[in-house]
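Can you give me the bound-state structure? Components:
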Amino acid sequence: MLEFHLSTIIFTIINLLVLYAVLRKVLFGKVNAVLEQRAQLVQQEIDAAQADNRQAQELKEQYEGKLQDAHQEAAKIVSDAQIRAQRVYEGKVAEAQSEAQRLRGEAQVQIATEREAMLRSARQEVASLALLAASKVAGRSMEADDDKAFVDEFLAEVGEQA
Amino acid sequence: MEAFKEMLLEELGTPTAFTIPLLGGVDVSQSVVVSWIVMAVLILASVCLTRNLKVENPGKVQVGLESTVEFLNGFVKTNIGEHWRPFAPWLGTVALYIGFANIIGIFGFAPPTKDVSVTAGLAILSMLLIYGSQFRYNGLVGGLKRFAEPMPLLLPINLMEVAIRPLALCMRLFGNVLGAFIIMEMLKFVAPILFPAVFSIYFDLFDGLIQTVVFVFLTTQFVGEGIKEEE
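Here's the bound-state model for the whole set.
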């Protein structure tokens, strides 16, 4: 029962070493390789995800910067346009005002001229009426030039008094 | 009763299966032949199970295989420390061999581990592993210094352990398997039908696996003691 057989001991040692050599290759080596590959894969995925994340962050910052630039640009354009519009508006208003002034001046001149003309014609009319009336009173025609001058003088006196 | 005694004694012996006619005849015992069967089964199973392993989307079998190997790796790592890598496959191999050798009684073979020569071979390998790694990873002087740890007073005990550890490993495994084997033989003699099957679950399966764990655990522990850096 308790006999040690050298041959069995040696066979056992050889058996174990052979089994170890085979299993290390066929079983543990393969499984560990797969485990390692998977660990590497996971690490790669994590690294890739982190790199992507970083890149996305950078892009975001870039875009935000660009967006800000664009905002500033737009604000500048708008303010430029406003300034230009203001200038144009002011120019137009000034032009319109001067035009209006001119038109008013012209109108006043015209009115004055017309009034003058009207007054003159009215005065002539009145003078001729007065002459007609006077001739009717005097019973004679007052066609002579000195008569007319007389009436005009008279009328001027009246005009001054009026 | 006498007949039973005869039969039991015959069963307990380590019969020679055949003799290789070399160097004046090398005896190949039955336990070695059964060991070869165990090895063949293990290698065949490994080849079959590790065919087309996939890194992505592993099948159920692969997941089981991977978690077993990972468990082994983790166990060896905790007990041996940073140099665990080369030890895991060896300890796994020993565990598979002893485990299958212990429970092969279920299939009607005599377990090879009931032969004290087989367990002696295993224990010698464990001893070589324990002290080999102690010197491999600490150097000659460092390895020798390890015998004076944790205190120089324990030097004689540590030196005695060089012989005691493998002897204990050898005898524990042998004794347990032999005991279980004797009880199973007696049960088979007393009540050949059905009755032994229930006890077989305990003596062949449970005790066999427990002894496997004990052997591998102690070997790992001893290797770790030899090379682990003190924190």
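A couple of observations. Chain B touches chain A through 48 residues (CB under 8 Å). Residues 26-38+60-227 of chain B form one domain.
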